[in-house]
Design a protein that fits this description.
Length: 415
């Protein structure tokens, strides 16, 4: 293999491409502009990977356009993702694998998003801990962050940590790759933006915010604690004055790095509870699908209730799960028995519980009552004897649960 690589101008090996491919394959994902699915790609895998390696290793690889896909955001607006082809994802993954270890050495411990050995639950735990210690929060929202990353400023950060010219060239090519819209138009980036959906985009975004925000915060104000997950940022302050003063500075800082704070979504929040009783209009914020707000909490010592400030699944997240249950149209599923439905739904149920059941899991009960009402609807359509009696259908489901307590995942874990 070494001899094979000696003829190439760029030191990227077939083994690195193969390792990158295995990671991309494990993530699955949809087809890009070439309409090649993972199944189609695998059918001709050796040829596809050799062509990618050959071009990347000779410096002649130019990424194809990314496919623009629109997904609905929780506020009803549309987020545009850019989906690269599978080969392009493999190429990006190969470069990401080279860069990530060196970037990890400089990234702040307060950054949790899209990093190895860090996750959303760790970020949420840190926010919970900080909210108990400090009374005020800045809930920071960067308007259209991924669309507004300044290429020149980003490349300054890249150049600082990436001496290899060939890697810098490929990063610039990925940044400049056009987007193919649903209407068939090609849109080129005008010196800013990196597509959400790209393999290397989260790493570059973290590098950008490392200098644009993390380092600035840590050097500007020693009194604050903060938690960042990609472009979602929670900053903990010791007083209202402290929060207001820092927020003014943050507006200026974001402008200086080509970004803007969302005027409606960025806000100062008071962590109100039984100890903290000041009157302030905003006492709630959302972070990573959870809502932080005053909540009745059971005391471990006295077993009584008190008003605490804690997180649980947000109303918006609960609504999205309810909407998903509606989309699944459980009552219309054609499985011959409820066993088939359980096998079909359990991967989703497990995902919801594993993520949203981490803190205050009892808040998920409403979701599962809704699910079980839809299972009853299915039974009434499937079995004639329950068509005229809702009560009998509910009794049937209760009987199924007693007889088969491990059938549905939420039954297994006590919901």
């Amino acid at each position: 293999m070494n001899l094979w690589n000696e003829t190439k101008s760029i030191p990227i090996s077939r083994q690195e491409i193969w390792t990158a491919y295995k990671k991309v394959r494990s993530n699955n994902g949809s087809a890009g502009v070439d309409a090649l699915s993972m199944k189609d790609y695998d059918a001709n895998r050796s040829k596809q990977l050799y062509k990618l390696w050959n071009r990347m290793a000779s410096g002649s690889y130019f990424p194809p356009p990314v496919k623009e896909v629109e997904i609905l955001k929780k506020d009803g607006k549309v987020r545009k993702l850019g989906i690269p082809t599978i080969s392009d994802r493999v190429g990006q993954m190969a470069i990401k694998m080279l860069l990530e270890p060196r970037f990890e050495k400089i990234f702040s411990s307060n950054s949790y998003g899209y990093r190895p050995n860090k996750n959303a639950h760790q970020a949420l735990s840190e926010v919970r801990k900080n909210c108990r210690k400090t009374d005020w929060v800045i809930d920071l929202d960067i308007k259209g962050f991924f669309d507004n990353i300044d290429h020149n400023k980003l490349m300054l950060a890249v150049n600082k940590h990436v001496p290899e010219k060939w890697i810098r060239i490929y990063i610039e090519r990925w940044l400049k790759a056009p987007r193919l819209t649903k209407s068939g138009s090609l849109i080129t980036n005008q010196g800013k933006g990196t597509p959400q959906g790209g393999v290397i985009s989260p790493l570059l975004a973290n590098l950008y915010l490392h200098y644009a925000l993390d380092m600035w915060l840590e050097n500007t104000d020693q009194m604050i604690k903060y938690v960042r997950y990609a472009d979602d940022v929670i900053i903990h302050c010791v007083s209202q004055f402290h929060a207001e003063r820092l927020l003014k500075l943050l507006h200026l800082r974001m402008q200086s790095v080509g970004l803007e704070l969302h005027p409606q979504k960025t806000k100062i929040v008071y962590c109100k509870d039984y100890r903290r009783r000041e009157n302030y209009p905003t006492i709630k914020f959302e972070f990573l699908g959870y809502s932080f707000q005053p909540r009745m909490t059971k005391s471990k010592q006295t077993k009584g209730l008190f008003l605490g400030f804690d997180c649980a699944i947000s109303i918006g997240s609960r609504k999205r799960i309810a909407d998903k249950l509606g989309e699944l149209a459980i009552e219309k599923l054609s499985f011959r028995s409820i066993v088939g439905i359980a096998q079909y739904l359990n991967p989703r149920i497990r995902g919801w519980i594993n993520y949203y059941g981490k803190f205050r899991p009892s808040e998920l009960h409403k979701i599962f009552r809704l699910l079980e009402s839809r299972l009853v609807r299915w039974a009434r359509k499937r079995y004639k004897r329950y068509k005229t009696s809702l009560a009998k259908a509910f009794k049937w489901l209760k009987r199924i649960r007693v007889q088969f307590p491990y059938l549905f995942y939420h039954w297994q874990v006590g919901y």
